[in-house]
Amino acid sequence: MSTPSSAHLDDSSDDFSMHSDEEAPVLTCTDPSLGYQKYFNCKKLSDVIIKYGSQGEHTFHGHRVLLATQSQYFDKLFNKVFTDVKEVVLEEDDPEMVEVILKLAYGHQPQSPTLEGTLENVLFVIHLFEISTKYEFSEFEELAVIGFTVSLNRFINQTANGQGPTFVELTTIIESVYEIQAGRLIESLIQILTTNPHVCAFRTWDSLSLLVLSVARQESRFEGSLREEFRKVRPSEHEALDVT
User: Buried b / exposed e across 162-187, counting CB within 10 Å, b at 16+?
Assistant: First the structure.
């Protein structure tokens, strides 16, 4: 069995792609041409059972070599000395997100949101990042970072026509990112909110939108990250920064 191709964003309409602004990129990963799709949850050649859900009620017939080539977690698990792993139980994870990473691993396009700018889509890629990081699917993690950047920027860009994030929606996004301590997503979040002209006209604290400042007053970790970013951009002015 050959090694699956890495996750990617490209110009193919069949992949998790960066299309034009008029189109909605969708999610996929491993090259479908490799033929792994037919083995998705297939007993044929399966050598490991993955049980997931709060009670382990879902069952997936997996293939160790395919999973190990894409996930360091599974690679280490399946290569333990004197251990022949036949069953893996993932009880603590959202079953829908487990299905997403398994579908990606086998070259399927999961039934997931596109990268259009909506709260649902932004939260989806945050959850994808979280589970990809946990199970060390590095390519999917990279995919999630790019997807987060694209979908959040598009969501904020809708501010121009009055359809951007509300206070509650932006707060939800920010709290979700900080809750899972997603360093790379935090970096992307701060970069977007200090450079997107719809919420920060001149990359100064004073030019931050009322929406962003209001959330910063409520979320101290977010405020701290914003302050640190502006210190880097305008170090001589950082003492004057004030959310009040």
Answer: eebbeeebbbbbbebbbebebebbbe
Distance (Å, whole) CA 29 – CA 108 = 7
Please tell me the number of Cα atoms within 13 Å of 229 on its side-chain side. Answer: 21
- Two tokens, residue 145: 């970072």
CA 204 to chain centre: 28
Cα-trace Rg, the chain: 20
- pLDDT tens digits, residue range 28-44? 555 554 678 888 888 88
Q: For residue 199, count other CB atoms closer than 10 A to its CB.
A: 22
Query: 224-229 long-range CB contacts below 8 Å, 24 or more apart?
Result: 225/186, 225/189, 225/190, 226/190, 226/193, 226/194, 229/190, 229/191, 229/194
Q: Which of the two residues, 34 and 167, has the higher pLDDT score? A: 167
Rounded distance between C-alpha atoms, residue 164 and residue 149, angstroms: 15
Mean pLDDT of 41-51: 90
Q: Is pLDDT above 70 for 2?
A: no
- What backbone torsions phi and psi does residue 67 show, to the nearest 5 degrees? -70, -40
pLDDT value for 25 = 53
The residue that leads in pLDDT, 240 or 235, is: 235
For residue 98, give both structure tokens. 């487990």
- If phi > 0 it is left, if psi is from -120 to 50 it is alpha, else beta; for residue 182 that is beta
pTM above 0.70, yes or no: yes
CA distance 138 to 69: 11
Task: Specify burial of residue 117 (Cβ count, 10 A radius: 0-12, 13-18, 19+).
Answer: buried
**What are the structure tokens assigned to 73, written together?**
């977690």
